[in-house]
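Repro:
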Amino acid sequence: MTTPILSVCINTRNRAGFLRETLDSILFQLNESVELVVVDGASDDGTKLMMRDYAGRHAAVKYFCSETPIGIDEGYDLAVERASGHYCWMMTDDDLVAAGALDRLLAEIEKGYDLILLEIDCYTKDLAVSLHQPLYQVGSDRVFTPENFQDFWPASGKGLSYIGSVVLRRSIWFEHDRTRYYGSYFVHVGVILESASITRALIVGYPYIKYRSGNSSWTPRSFEIWNFKWPRLVWESTRLSAHSKEGIVPREPWRRALSVLKSRAMGEYDLKTFRTWLASRLAWEQRVPFLLIALIPRTLLNFMLLLFCLIFRKSNPYTIYNLTVSSSYPRLAVSISALLGVRFVPTPGAE
């Protein structure tokens, strides 16, 4: 059997409905150069039966099911270990792959890049309406070689947090111990940051991924992840300059009151979060504003920020949408958005 060039690696648990849509968007594009590897962290929602059916009908599908739940990082590490392709695409289990993506990837892989990053288009959770929010915002393809690799991190750093955009030469994955990044939620970023072998990279400007907004499996831990785990991973890197790190994420983003205010409006920050993550890190006189933010009624704050964005930030539907789906009354929030000119359902008769 010919060794595949590309392995599409997916880690999943209890998301059978979304996973089916993801798989269907990939399978019709498969050829003899591509395999699909799915690692299941002990799902109990019908994923096992569904995946056994897919594997039985498609020789290119490899399915591995753990007997116990495993984390995001462990799951992707296991998927890459079980893969046999020269390159691995760490795809998510709920987003969709646009037509032509695999052919485009195979063509770019032939050029010998170490790392390829795919642009995305953010959609509403039901994938009905585009939110016009790119990840890398490069506009067109950008190639990075040893001569200009210093420009890679400013262009890619923030977007790298989304694992679904990453296509990596598989041998690079095994250069260092990945277990040190277990629990970080960003094992792929740890691998990339630690590797000195990545000298040629490509950011593909066309959005080959339809990203399902407001559907992350880690939403309940968002405050911890974005304010502590993500910046810790970036700032512990020995390969990035302080300037590059700051361009990706501040060392302590949780100190920004406006950011915490937004987290409160979206239900990610409350009194328990304040006590767990901020109280012990702040001097007593610094605690007051963050304590007050935790005490603001979330429903009221969400509504106020939504109105502000609808009046003054209407050009940013992505933020408006995230405020509506995190509202205590999402249907009302969507209706108010529509009344003020921002729609999150398709216009009747629109193509």
